[in-house]
Design a protein that fits this description.
mainly alpha, about 80 residues, single chain
Amino acid sequence: MKQVIATCLTAFMQTTILYIGLLTFQEHALLALGICLSANEVPKVAQMFGMDTSTHVNMTSISSAVSMGSKAVRMIAKAP
């Protein structure tokens, strides 16, 4: 039961952090990229507090991070 709660908590936190990164993207692209990349660290932090989050690679977070990275690179390249 504890593993189910930990997995749900980490999925919720990762999704929330990715969403915050997307909201921040228009004003601060580089900050948004950092926020989105930090979402991948949520399971490690949860494990430090004793939660068993032995989940497999989340393809949604990977694709979101890659998408945000490519958008940030394009925006930085367009900047005068």
